[in-house]
Amino acid sequence: MDHKEEYHWTIEAKASLFDLKLNEVWAYRDLLVLLVRRDFVSFYKQTILGPLWFFIQPLFTTIIFTFIFGNLAGISTDGLPKPLFYMAGITAWNYFADCLTKTSTVFKDNAGIFGKVYFPRLIMPLSIVVSNLVRFGVQMLLFLLMMAYYYLSGAIFHMTSAIFLFPFIVILMALLGLGAGMIISAMTTKYRDLAFLVTFGVQLLMYATTVIYPLSEAFSKYPDYAWIIAYNPMTPIIETFRYGFLGEGSFSWGSLGYATAVTTALLLFGIVIFNKVERNFVDTV
Amino acid sequence: MPAIKVENLSKAYQLGQIGTGTISRDLERWYARMRGKEDPFLRIGESNDQYTKSESDVVWSLKDINFEIEQGDAVGIIGRNGAGKSTLLKILSKVTAPTTGRISGKGRIASLLEVGTGFHPELSGRENIFLNGAILGMRKKEIQRKLEEIVDFAGIERYLDTPVKRYSSGMYVRLAFAVAAHLESEILIVDEVLAVGDAEFQKKCLGKMGEVSKGEGRTVLFVSHNMGSIASLCNQCIFLQNGLVKDFGNAKDIINHYLASLKNTNKVYVNDQFSDLPIFTRVEVMTSEPGAIQLNGKDLKIEIDVYMPKNLTGMAVSIQIMNENELPIIFTYIFDTSQPILRDVGIHKLKCVLPKCKLYENNYYLKVHLAESKGKTKFQEIDNICAFQVQMPDDHIEWGWQKDVCIYTEKFEWEISSANN
Q: Interface pTM (ipTM) of the complex?
């Protein structure tokens, strides 16, 4: 008699690479919500300023960028008010960078809990991305306040219909950070070297993205090398973001489509290698 | 049809440093796989004996395990430390994947490998119940429905909205166990986590687990060193030894088999392999009676030979006397700093006498350590050697000597006076 079909589950030495276990993730969706809540609540406990801390970092970065890159180095901001230009870039970049760096250490940070209980491991990086969304939301609020201030004081900028792409852009940033972060996290469980590169690499990557300069400026000053910047998938995202909210920036459906394609590819690859490593990482961490 | 079926299950671990030199090894492995050959670093046949040095640094924590568990059975998993018990539970809980083989099963698994996994100290008891429950795989609705029962079982009603960092360790354990025990799973896996709670709570937990398996027909797998709890809870037992299933069957029989296997180790430990490091060459327990039997109240002698390959100062030797539940009862040591020992090259003989040893009747064995205290170097640690049995003197006390009434006896005096004066 063959009863194999009646078993609900099997644990095997080798699992299929392309079983993404997404249905399992869905079954644990309540856990995702609770983890996000935990991050949020535990962040505020025993702080005086609470969510105000979310403001301080982008605010100071904007001030410093305005002085150094705007005034001292005199890099063009496409005619936009400098703080507004930088704030747009920083807000978007920070979200991506947070998703990337936090996801990249997910195995190391959760070794304790991963070693003791099973749940779909993907929940953890997902919860990081969603938790960061809260922080991003608060920083967006700051950005909108700043827009209102500049609007009232008569600065020239205008929103474009590309603003309706905003939700899509946020998802794109989240998934790009998630995908890249998962690849790094999977590669660092055994060889920690890469972990040192991440913080440093993210910083460098920012300069290869149009955070502190517009893409048009890169093309006019370094026409031969600007393709590096244009092929960075974060560039179209930030350019679209700026174009939508401030009306300046190089927006094209083609480049946004390219960013989407890269994101999808990285994400799928990320999930596959994350799931592969997850099965045995407890033994090597 | 069994609830859990384990087929040819093996798990290999790599010993030593991970990370250095593993790239070249990974490449070698990959190359071997490409040619369709066996992994050069995974040689089956190497046994997992912690006390002998093996040539390969891959160790098989579980080796080709096969067994089936019927639904509703309460199965105890017993064996010495390092026998593979925890590895088996980890694989069953899907925390780590097996190296070869497969497990098939029916129904949801709730596993409690550690108390309070995922508890966040800043969150309240209530929030942690939800978080912990969700980590274990419960839906929010399910937890909501069980909340009252969980709180009731844990007895933390008054503290429900207090952060768990303010809980006593007992409350913490109670809450954690309560959440796992109330998960509607077909299979419950419990590692030795109950040891943290107090006796009353342990009883309550065992009661709950018994209720789960007998009353609700759920399957329970339980690891413990406490044969008493295993005997009272489990109807089936798996005895693991060096990564192999040594015996499987009726709990009472297997427990007796396991306890007998502890006794049967030789009362003399001899090692004739010298190395360039200090090493025990012989450890022998000299019991008061022949046949490795020690009478309570008589002197117990332990003789130790140590080989020193070079001149060293700061050596230290220590002995632990452990009982059959792997509980250390006596610890004694000698340090070079207080009395010169083991300073010269060659074999040294040490003799330790415990005058009028008052161990209670039970089975005991030794664990010996050889170390150098200045550099904090541990040269050798040998566990589970020189088994002996303590018997109580044959003076007929009224009730006879009951098992496990104590682990140690002491001289005592009663003073009698009358309240009428």
A: 0.83
